[in-house]
């Protein structure tokens, strides 16, 4: 039987969003972006002092959480206008997705929920992955910092996970070599490994972090993870002031649960990043708290850290709004609205840590709207001396 090969191709408006069996070069398969970027930094959209930001509510709890972000921004007076684009999860067409990507390219910045792909067609790709690939958002960052007032399995955690976001196990290159045998390609490139490692060490330097841990499985995947490990070690040598070590992913998960305080900044490939993010989120309060940031050379997309859909709790007024509000705070910081970001951040901390207004996922009995109302109350009564 002839082998079926599914590969990525550029998105085209009006076309069904499927993988295609085209003859792309190895370089095109692995990269959407050139190794060396010559373009100038693309400015974010700013009209009359207000930033335009793309909002992709996504599925499940996404739309209700975005409504809370809008409410909070209104009371905070945040100078941001949202361009909302809904992506229909029930269709295989790519038009919504193309509009979303075009909007993010125009505005430079987006906030998003998780976008479901309901199609069971194996050739229809994840829209979340497509957005990251099309915008070359090669870095995902999760600041995993415990909230003192939240009851959880581990306290005083302060770990930064830096994850390769566009290749690895998410390359979406699978083929059936012979009937009943499917091969899935894990793509690791030196250029992307280098970008991740450099970004991580630069981040550690800028933020006074002491140690970077490289997470891998190079004992088994000697070539792919071996390249990631070798490249990261090479970059580490350029930063002698920052300690570095490496750890096999299996041991890393155990260490995270038993002794997480040994970690400071962690770097890893794509799937390990998702797993480790979920482990740490579980340790410090679950999917409803932490936000995640996706960066490329030109665009930035902000979202809840574990990227869940939360479909089972949608519409019940019990979803924790904090992860999405934290994503909106990250976005304000990125846009340079530090005072608005601090005001919302402080209101969040007061609400969940001092007032103990918490949703059921944190052990509380309050609704999503109770939490948001209290955040708004704190914002309204905050001392705006700036
Ligand atoms: P899910 O959406 O079922 O969420 C996992 C658990 O976290 C559920 O118990 C949910 O109620 C809870 N949860 C999530 N957000 C919450 C919030 N704001 N407040 C309170 N509880 C919250 O996640 P699952 O099963 O992992 O995935 C569902 C969809 O999300 C799938 O389409 C999957 O592909 C996608 N997804 C999940 C990722 C993950 O890391 N878990 C990563 C990327 C995509």
Key features?
globular, eleven-stranded mixed beta sheet, Isopropylmalate Dehydrogenase, 386 residues, 3 domains, three-stranded antiparallel beta sheet, alpha/beta, 36% helix, binds 1,4-dihydronicotinamide adenine dinucleotide
Tell me what you see in this structure.
With 386 residues, the protein is of the alpha/beta class. It folds into three domains: 35 residues, no CATH class; 192 residues, Isopropylmalate Dehydrogenase (3-Layer(aba) Sandwich); 132 residues, Isopropylmalate Dehydrogenase. It contains eleven helices and 14 strands. The strands form two sheets. Strands 2, 3, 4, 5, 6, 7, 10, 11, 12, 13 and 14 form an eleven-stranded mixed beta sheet that branches. Strands 1-8-9 form a three-stranded antiparallel beta sheet, with no helix packed on it. Helix 2 packs parallel to helix 11, helix 7 packs parallel to helix 8 and helix 10 packs across helix 11. The longest helix has 17 residues. The radius of gyration is 21 Å and the shape is globular. The relative contact order is 0.15. It binds 1,4-dihydronicotinamide adenine dinucleotide. 1,4-dihydronicotinamide adenine dinucleotide binds next to helix 8.
Summarize the entry for a quick read.
This protein is α/β, with parallel strands linked by helices and 386 residues long. 36% of the residues lie in helices and 18% in strands. The longest helix is centred in the middle third of the chain and has 17 residues, at 190-206.
Mean of residue pLDDT values: 90
Q: Span between N and C termini?
A: 70 Å
The dominant shape is globular
Low-confidence stretches: 1-8, 29-38
Report the count of strand segments. Answer: 14
Protein name: Isocitrate dehydrogenase [NAD] subunit gamma, mitochondrial-like isoform X1
Family: Belongs to the isocitrate and isopropylmalate dehydrogenases family.
Domain Isopropylmalate dehydrogenase-like: 52-375
Keywords: Transit peptide, Tricarboxylic acid cycle
